[in-house]
Design goal:
- The strands form 5 sheets. The chain has a 16-stranded parallel beta sheet that branches.
- The protein starts with a strand and ends with a strand.
- It is an all-beta fold.
- A hairpin with a 4-residue loop joins strand 5 and strand 6.
């Protein structure tokens, strides 16, 4: 159980009466009301190759997959469909897609809270926000943490963690996924701004929850990962058009790993200490359409790596061109 949990809920679900796709401004369902928020989830995996121009990578390790999906709001209601504010982003919403009403918890602010001697379980959280909208975690600290996540936004919309500081007290390279201090999963438009992690393993992480939707338009900006033992900043497969910008990473392992699509990785300062690791990597056959620009990378075995494969048991290869852009990066090894 998290120490603090901010939680909304899901309401009724509805099937689509006809298929819709990119650019649609209507949702063919009955039963929703004006201004309802809806979680639209496709029946198609975003980690498959059915839609190569929208594929978001491959399934992470042993976890369940993710699906194309997004949060949308109802603008008007007619007899057989609803009109949306804005248009649909992803393809493949057919008769297998589900539209579920979301009862967001909105506008919650936690500010100035301090945790000490934090000894929670590896899979737990200090502050967990689920189905939150416009919530803020501001100027909170966690001292002497051993494992677990400090601040997590899961299935959230437009939530922010800002000016938070986390310190782990254990130097341990094993089970790096147990110290993802600042984490965003299956969320849209969420952000960590000016947050700092000390002694984490993979402290800043944008990913997905198994069997939920992709994370989209999320950001890690102005953040610091000090003495990271694995990767300072990472986007997993199942992420779309996220930003890692203006950050500082001091790593005993890798700098930034990009495994989603259409990201921006710019104006970061990365310092490594290992000749075997990388500063920035477009990994696991993904990183399509990513912009890598104006980063200052020093002390890694490789400045920028493009890595098509992960393991013999996972097909990470694609036939499409990467279409990534690299410009203005400064790389040095000493």
């Amino acid at each position: 159980t998290p120490i603090i949990k901010i939680e909304g809920s899901l309401g009724s679900s509805y099937s689509l009466s006809s298929a819709i796709g990119v650019g649609s401004s209507t949702l063919p369902v009955k039963g929703l009301s004006k201004l309802d928020w809806v979680l639209l989830k496709s029946g198609k995996s975003c980690l498959a190759k059915d839609y190569p121009h929208y594929s978001l990578g491959v399934t992470t390790a042993t976890s369940a997959g993710a699906y194309y999906g997004e949060f949308v709001q109802v603008a008007n209601v007619s007899s057989n469909e609803v009109e949306l504010f804005g248009n649909i982003i992803f393809p493949s919403y057919d008769s297998n897609a589900i539209a579920t009403k979301v009862n967001f918890v909105e506008g919650v602010v936690i500010e100035g809270l301090n945790f000490y001697n934090g000894k929670i379980s590896s899979s737990n959280h200090y502050i967990l926000t689920q189905y939150g909208k416009d919530c803020k975690i501001i100027n909170c600290t966690c001292e002497d943490a051993i494992i677990g996540n400090f601040t997590t936004f899961s299935n959230c919309l437009n939530c922010i963690g800002k000016d938070n500081v986390l310190r782990y007290e254990v130097k341990d390279y094993t089970n790096y996924y147990e110290r993802n201090g600042f984490k965003i999963t299956s969320s849209q438009g969420c952000m960590f701004d000016n947050c700092t992690s000390y002694n984490g393993t993979q402290p800043f992480d944008i990913t997905y929850v198994g069997d939920s939707i992709a994370s989209s338009f999320c950001k890690i900006v102005n953040c610091k990962a000090i003495n990271s033992m694995y990767t300072c900043f990472t986007t997993h497969p199942g992420t779309y058009r996220c930003n890692i910008t203006n950050c500082i990473g001091n790593s005993n392992g890798d700098g930034i790993s990009v495994r989603g699509r259409g990201h921006i990785v710019s104006n970061n300062i990365l310092q490594g200490t290992s000749v075997t690791d990388y500063g920035i990597c477009l990994a696991e056959g993904c990183g399509f359409e990513t912009v890598v620009s104006n980063n200052n990378i020093k002390g890694f075995g490789e400045g920028i790596r493009i890595n098509e494969t992960y393991s013999a048991t996972r097909d990470c290869s694609y036939t499409l061109p990467l279409n990534a852009t690299f410009s203005g990066n400064i790389i040095s090894t000493v």
